[in-house]
Amino acid sequence: MFCLTVLFVTNTQAAPPIAVVATLPVLKDLAEAVGKEHVRVSSLISGLESEHTYTPKPSDLITIQKAKVLFQIGLDLELWVRPLIQNADRPDLPLITTSREVKVIETGAADDHGHGAANPHIWLDPQNVKVMIGHILKGLIAADPDHRQDYEKNASDYIRALENLEKELKTKVGRLKDKKIITHHPAWPYFAQRFGFDIRSNILMQIGSAPSAKKLGVLIRQIKEEGIRVIVSEPQLNQKIPSILAEETGATVVPLSPLTGAISGTDHYLDLMRYNIETLAAALEKP
Ligand SMILES: [Zn+2]
How far is ligand 1, taken at its centre, from the CA of residue 47, in Å? Predict the structure, then answer.
């Protein structure tokens, strides 16, 4: 009896969590949802930076050197990730692209700010997150086959929670009469497509470039002519232009985040989606 007890205790203590790296905080949250106590996940980008801005820290190389698996979005959003893996001398590190098999929205042209020919902000549609969870599940099972059953159970629990939330949020949006919005940068087409919002224009087409006076004039006229009442701003970007547009037109600025953790209470993806939909719906509902 005594021997069995010792054996049991030794076994549970023998498996420390595996080191997992994600490029974005939203991938970190999804990897933690599937991995739970079996993983320790680090995100290279924090929620306060734009998803297009990566500032390498010396500790990132060490993080990658210790990792068992790395999750990225792909679609040219994280062009810096392969050089980073090279610098960390980890050609063997499994790099899992979670956008595989997602039906992408084409943007028309690539730019040098992480917008390739396909729009990379796939995670703002919960249906795409189901596909992403599938890739994360496979990646964790390959890195740590001993906990396969736990990973499978966590993934299916998460997908159920995702489906319930989507249903609830769709009902909320379905009641809205006005669904017209202007967005800060083209982060929201998957979100708009899934929930039925009508993006009339974007303030920025590229991160890091300010719109010209002419473009501002065009936006102001469009907002007035089309009766657009809501301008979506993002906490990761400069707030000046959205507030100028609001002053000139009487529209309301509504801060929504494409990334988890930038707005208080949105550390988890499910909370982020709820926050984004509820905040936007409340602004559009106002008489
Ligand atoms: Zn973007």
Answer: 13
Instruction: For residue 230, give the DSSP letter.
Output: E
Please tell me what DSSP assigns to residue 210.
P
Residue 206 pLDDT: 78
Tokens linked to 257: 């985040």
CB atoms within 10 A of CB 196: 11
pLDDT confidence of 1, banded at 50, 70, 90?
Answer: very low
Whole-angstrom CA distances from 222 to 181, 183, 188, 193, 258 are 11, 13, 19, 21, 25
| Mean pLDDT estimate for the chain | 92
Ligand 1 geometric centre to CA of 15 (Å): 38
Q: What separation in Å is there between the alpha carbon of 204 and the centre of ligand 1?
A: 10
Specify the pLDDT at position 14. Answer: 61
pTM of this prediction exceeds 0.85: yes
Range 165-175 average pLDDT: 97
CA of 153 to the centre of ligand 1 (A): 32
pLDDT at 108: 65
Tracing tokens 């500032």 back to the chain, one arrives at 55
- Contact indicator for 114, 120 with CB cutoff of 8 Å: yes
For the chain, report the end-to-end CA distance as a whole number of angstroms: 71
Copy the structure tokens of residue 226. Answer: 């089309």
Phi, psi of 53 (to 5 degrees): -115, 120
86 CA from centroid of ligand 1 (Å):
25
Residue 11, pLDDT > 60, answer no
Separation of 232 CA from ligand 1 center, angstroms? 14
- Strand, coil or helix: 162: helix
Domains and CATH numbers, the chain: 12-167 (3.40.50.1980), 176-285 (3.40.50.1980)
